[in-house]
Amino acid sequence: MKKKLALRPSALVGLTLLASLWLAACGDSTPTTAPATTAAATAAKTSAAPVAGTTAAAGATTVAGTPAATTTAAATGAKGGTAVVAIDSDPDTLNLGATTGYSSGDVGAKIFNGLVWLDGTFTPQPSLATSWTISDDGKTYSFKLRSGVTWHDGKPFTSDDVKFTMEEILAKYHPRTMALMKRVKSVETPDPLSVVVTLSEPYAPYLLQQTVFDSPILPKHIFTGTDILKNPASSKPIGTGPFKFVEWNRGSSIRLARNENYWEAGKPLLDGIVFQIVPQGANRSSGLETGEIDFVVDFYLQKSDVKRLESNPKLQPRRGQGTPAIDFITLNTKTAALATKEARQAVTLAVNRKRMVDQAMGGLARTGKGPFGDGFKLVYNPDTDYDKLYPYDVEKAKTLLDTAGVKAGADGSRGTLRLVYDSARPQFVSGAQLVKENLKLVGFNVELQPLERSVMIQKVFADRDFDLTFQSFSSSGDPAIGYHRLYLTNATKTQFLNASGYSNLKVDELLNKAAVTPKSEDRVKLYTEVQTILAADLPSIVLFDEEGVDFASKRLSGLWTSSDSRDRWDTVSLAKS
Amino acid sequence: MVTIKDRAIAPVAAYLEYILRRVLQAIPLLLGVVVVNFLLIQLAPGDPVTVLVGDYPAPEEYVKQVRAEYGLDKPLWERLILYLGSLLRGNLGYSFANRQPVADLIGQRLGPTLLLTLTALGLATIIGVLLGLLAARTRFRVVDSTTQVTALAGYSIPEFWLGQLLILVFAVGLGWLPSQGMRTVRSEAEGWAAVGDILTHLLLPTLALSVRYIAVISRITRASLLEVLSSDFILGTRAKGVNESRVMWVHAMRNAAAPIITVIGFNFGFLLAGSALIETVFGWPGIGRLLFDSITKRDYPVLTAILLLISITVVLANLLTDLAYALLDPRVRLGKSN
Model's pTM, two decimal places? Predict the structure, then answer.
């Protein structure tokens, strides 16, 4: 009996050894299958060039709509099935009118509709509004609403809902649209299916912010006279969208079911969508591999997993989908060594942006082509291309620093710079290492300060207690929405505005004018002029334009009809396994 | 006059008094825990409002509005008094990040955590004691040292890393078990199928969580047993010709049990802390993950409430340990009457 017992622990050890051997073998075998399928990824990459639209301000035109014929044709999938989509945490709320949270948007985009949705080229397409007219002066937007639309509780949708949502919810609680609503003079409802919005001055990207993410339409009959945030419908939402809310198991999942009375006949195709909350990036990837999860949007994906996932024959990648986003380093112009534009130009020359793209982003980015990247046709200007103006050049950087008066001491050092960044963002973590290495070559000692997000925000935006900081901004559909803030004068402590301390009245004037100029040709001129100034002054250095990858199970089709992969899931279908 | 009946009751009464005293002692302790936690958390750098307003520059008046809505515009001492006041009325507060009462939030998460931690503790106790027994009993040094080294390794492996490894092997590689969550979310099973579904989801996180405690318990079992087995009374029992397995299970085990129980009880608090990481790795919808999320979101009310809950659990576990102690050892049970 003793002998029998005696064998067990050693058997245990043996098993452990076997397991680790097996693991090691696994690690080797993965890359061998890679070449066959990366072709698909590359194909996806080429199809998604930087082509964000300039269509926001069409002058006095009517955009009438048959609802997006191209995209409905693309979805040939059969009905049925439940798709599992990964999100990273419980949404703060499911009241899409009171949040910009990414996971809230993910869930909410299936439950609600905006007046429009944006197609792959950021062109507004009809959603709750079937058509709209913009007045000649660019100030008045007249929307015709879709008839026969009902809320998930059966009540009819009317122009009253639109007016109420805009005035009582978006203007008061939506962190981003609140600023847009300040430009709105009045919202009128001549009849139940018409809404007329009058702006105090023209605003080029107005229509682009009428999407489900920025301006979801919520039911007046549910919210009127209540505390908007604590209303039960803020966690059990009622919308007009393709899917209805079923249940929310906090920490675990959110379940939606098909809206049988959806306004677009025959849609949606799926029986339901379940959002599974998967807190760890690594496990969102492994969930895709095991087939437990069908879809992970780029935002939730760990860049280091991309190569492995691309080699998986059961998955389809989609590269470069989504809103343009730039990653940049903001230089504190109050720091003595960074106070002159020559010094900032020297730093730009000293940072190897090509290597940054490869190392920090695994190649999933384009080196920054100017003060706003090249994600928008409006802003790309070959004359201010950073690749031409500031190619990686250590010697030139040193000379420039010497002439700027940032001289090396007896020990060869030009001083210490503190680089502050959000430690939860992998691209910042590895990018910061490279900046440290790069700037060492020109004589700066860079002190890395990886901080938790809330502490980083305090330090950078409120206290301005930094020399360099790694950040990333996105700008849905138009540079005026999210990029102007990087350079506009900012004396406040508001987070995610210009933290450099740079203030140039000419720049302010040009940017503000670009935002209210309706015609694209006129805007291009303004952007060309402002970029000439910014490319020389460099309060922030744009390092790269992100080019993320979404991953979906090959069983899913009809995805990616909108510029935001979280939107338009009514056309998505799931093949039987 | 002391009757037989009284003699039976007296120790029980003394014991009840002892329990009451222990519970009363716990109250100032818990109050201290609340105050220290409240201050520590709120004094830590980082502002919850920055998280609440999202990734986009929100107008300053909105930031002010949010700050006022959650009472974060008041001075720290005032917030502490308000918090203690509402705590006394049984109100745990309102979560900023989840826009829900804290009590509801914790209530929804308590079940999964208890399921996970109690299963892990049970598994660790059974396997740990058996391994310790094996190591103490074996005549082969190699078995003893293998158990010892395995235990040391088990104790040293970071549990989140082990969890990730288990997912790679059993979920991704072999495809035997699910990698995430407590239920298969695509199609939720019902009835007995649901129980089976939860069990398959429970397996990996339990394993990852219990390894460290298997190690601790097996080592203490071995040490404690060896000490008892070398004592004179065991020699005496053996000399009387008592059958070896009876010596082991009845005489030795009973005397070696006290330290084992102490270790199990005192480790329960660590188990809860460990579950924060394990729940995050496995997407388990419990308290531990809520704790983890609340830290990154600076959700003070939730954070303080969970820390309070953990403190209560630790105090309770210690109390239960002492009770079990008394059950095993008459000297403790009889207390001062002896």
Answer: 0.82
Write out chain B residues lying below 8 Å of A276, CB-based: 180-181, 185, 283
Q: Shortest Cα distance from A566 to chain B (angstroms)?
A: 17
Can you give the pLDDT at residue A34? 33
Specify the pairing of strand B100-101 against strand A540-546: unpaired
Q: Which of B107, B124, B163 is nearest to B286 (CA)?
A: B107
Residue A256 has pLDDT above 80, yes or no: yes
Distance separating alpha carbons of residues B97 and A52, to the nearest angstrom: 34
- ∠ CA B87-B90-B91, nearest 5°, is 70
The beta-carbon neighbor of B50 closest among A19, A458, A497 is: A458
A30 CB near a chain B CB, below 8 Å? no
The tens digit of pLDDT for each residue in A378-436 reads 889 999 999 999 999 999 999 999 999 998 888 889 999 999 999 888 889 999 999 99
- Residue A9's Cβ-count burial label (10 Å; 0-12, 13-18, 19+) is buried
For A120, A308, B235, B237, the CA distances from A19, given in Å and listed in that order, are 46, 21, 43, 44
A506-539 burial by CB neighbour count: b if 16+ within 10 A, else e?
ebbebbeebbbbbebeebbebbebbbebbbebbb
CA distance A156 to chain B (A): 29
Q: What's the token pair of residue B246?
A: 């009876």
The span from the CA of A499 to the CA of B310, in Å, is: 41
Peptide bond into A268 cis (omega under 30): yes
Q: Find residue A9's DSSP bridge partners.
A: none
Q: Which of residues 95-124 of A touch B (CB under 8 A)?
A: 99-102
What's the pLDDT at B8?
55
Strands B94-95 and B100-101: antiparallel
If you count them, how many residues does chain A have?
A: 577
Query: In this predicted model, which residue has the larger pLDDT, B193 or A46?
Result: B193
- What's the N-to-C CA distance of chain B in angstroms? 18
Query: Which of A12, A214, A250 to probe by mutation at the B interface, max B CB count within 10 Å?
Result: A250
What residues in A contact B172, CB-CB < 8 Å?
286, 289-290
Q: Which residue of A has its CA nearest to B172?
A: A290
Q: Which of residues 217-276 of A touch B (CB under 8 A)?
A: 229-230, 234-235, 249-253, 255, 274, 276
Region B294-301: mean pLDDT is: 86
Closest Cβ opposite residue A5 in set B134, B164, B165:
B134
- Substitution target in A315, A454, A455 with the highest count of B β-carbons within 10 Å is A454
Q: Supply the ipTM of this predicted assembly.
A: 0.82
Computed on alpha carbons and rounded to an integer, the radius of gyration of chain B in Å comes to: 25
Report how far residue A440's alpha carbon sits from residue A416's, in angstroms, rounded to the nearest whole number: 10
Q: Which residue of B has its CA nearest to A251?
A: B285
Residue pointed to by tokens 């010497």: A402
